[in-house]
Design brief:
This protein has 418 residues and is α/β, with parallel strands linked by helices. It has two domains: 28-254, no CATH class; 268-418, Nutrient germinant receptor protein C, domain 3 (GMP Synthetase, Chain A, domain 3), CATH 3.30.300.210. Helices cover 32% and strands 24% of the residues. The chain contains 14 helices and 14 strands. The strands form two sheets. Strands 1, 2, 3, 4, 5, 6, 7, 8 and 9 form a nine-stranded mixed β-sheet that branches. Strands 10, 11, 12, 13 and 14 form a five-stranded mixed β-sheet that branches. The N and C termini lie far apart (108 Å). The mean pLDDT is 83.
Length: 418
């Protein structure tokens, strides 16, 4: 009899193990999901105003049924010393458990980002196990609470996908940096480089003389976009040194940083450049980086020297002057030299800005510098941060042409008009 009971127990034991995995499951009706956290300066020392952007889990799901008219998101703002204590404090107004499973962005106002105390509040995110290290850091021109409440994504019933898709595509084309939290912590603790965070705003310039329709030298809010589109504009970067915001980079300057930095996630760039054959026109080119940047250093000279070679493949997609350079070697060389000179000028302007204004660099060159020293102690004594502003830096752009559009040759303008 005992043997039969033992056999039954052995037979039932695997099923008991399977059932144990369900004890802690929670339904959607018992949770709310925070998809964005906003941080703003408060009047009380040691605390910040924290805004939750909360998604309605039932909108856009099979559970929604007749609730299609419900709001997709809601915001709530409370004062707190950190992220951790706020989760329970917010339950005074929210009747469900607050979860960070869908958290994609931490939004910080520019005012707070420029405060020396900012880093104290952000490091509480490193302590919370539920805040993922690939959460993106965004700096906004206005208050974070205003940005989160005014932003109205189109075509997306699930708003957390808007931030994820918008940021990922912005990184691919180079207009915003990859500003994941773990990068912020790593760069800040290295104490050698600049960290770049995504710059965004919902305050778009309205007057004709206050905005630029061209993205060149523009930040978020400088390019006015008309029509029914998203309220938020993501363009450029907020520059951090030692955990505090010290300036900004335009969208084009951020592209240059990502091209020079081998660890960037940029895939390809569509950009206008001056047409060397007609001053009234611009060529649209696709720029691709297929090989790593070459960085050569001589850090024992006075001043220390850095020589950078940036290899690029360029596809010329338009020919508004209708010069058809593809079959003419002289025209091809003129086009190449014009493009290289144009890009080198832009790059050197940014390098000079990093040396004179920021006193540090975002290009990752300090990693190359460590290889120039026998020991870490020698590198530390060199003091990269102190020495960088005085270095002599040269950048050469080497362009290899790819395609000249789907149809390389176009009719000559004179041939059509004559």
């Amino acid at each position: 009899m005992k043997q039969n009971n033992l056999i039954k127990l052995i037979f039932l034991f695997p099923f008991i193990l399977i059932l144990t995995g369900c004890w802690d499951l929670k339904g959607l009706d018992r949770q709310v999901f925070v998809i964005g956290i906003g941080l703003d300066v408060s009047d009380e020392k040691g605390k910040v105003d924290i805004t939750y952007l909360i998604a309605n889990p039932e909108v856009g799901s099979s559970m929604s049924g007749g609730g299609a008219e419900e709001d997709t998101v809601m915001t709530i703002t409370m004062r707190s010393p950190d992220f951790l204590s706020l989760r329970h404090s917010a339950n005074s107004a929210i009747a469900r458990e607050i979860a960070y499973d869908l958290l994609r962005v931490i939004v910080v106002s520019e005012e707070l980002a420029k405060d020396e105390e900012f880093i104290r509040f952000l490091y509480s995110a490193e302590k919370d196990r539920e805040i993922k290290r690939n959460t993106y850091l965004i700096v906004t021109k206005e208050k974070a609470a205003e940005f989160l409440s005014k932003n109205d994504p189109k075509f997306l019933t699930r708003p957390h996908k808007f931030y994820e898709n918008m940021i990922q595509r912005g990184i691919e084309v180079g207009f915003i940096p990859n500003s994941e939290l773990h990068h912020f912590f790593r760069v800040t603790e290295e104490d050698a480089n600049l960290f770049l965070a995504t710059y965004a705003t919902t305050n778009i310039r309205q007057k004709e003389d206050e905005y630029r329709i061209n993205e060149m030298d523009a930040l978020a809010g400088d390019v006015r976009i008309e029509g029914e589109t998203n309220s938020a504009n993501f363009l450029g970067a907020a520059v951090f040194l030692e955990g505090m915001m010290i300036g900004t980079l335009t969208g084009v300057e951020n592209r240059i940083v990502m091209l020079l930095h081998d660890a960037s996630s940029i895939t390809d760039i569509l950009a206008p450049i001056p047409d060397p054959f007609h001053e009234d026109y611009e060529l649209t080119v696709r720029i691709r980086k297929q090989h790593n940047t070459s960085v050569e250093m001589n850090l024992h000279d006075m001043p220390p020297k850095i020589h950078v070679t940036l290899p690029l493949t360029v596809d010329v997609l338009t020919d508004p002057s209708m010069e058809n350079p593809v079959d003419n070697k002289k025209k091809v060389e003129k086009l190449r030299s014009t493009m290289e000179e144009f890009m080198e000028t832009k790059i050197m302007a940014l390098v000079e800005k990093s040396q004179k204004e920021f006193k540090a660099e975002p290009f990752g060159w300090s990693l190359y510098a460590r290889k120039e020293f026998k020991t870490l102690k020698d590198y530390m004594e060199f003091d990269w941060m102190r020495t960088y502003p005085e270095m002599k830096i040269d950048v050469d752009v080497e362009i290899r042409f790819g395609q000249f559009g789907r149809q390389p040759k176009t009719p000559s303008y004179k041939g059509i008009r004559d």
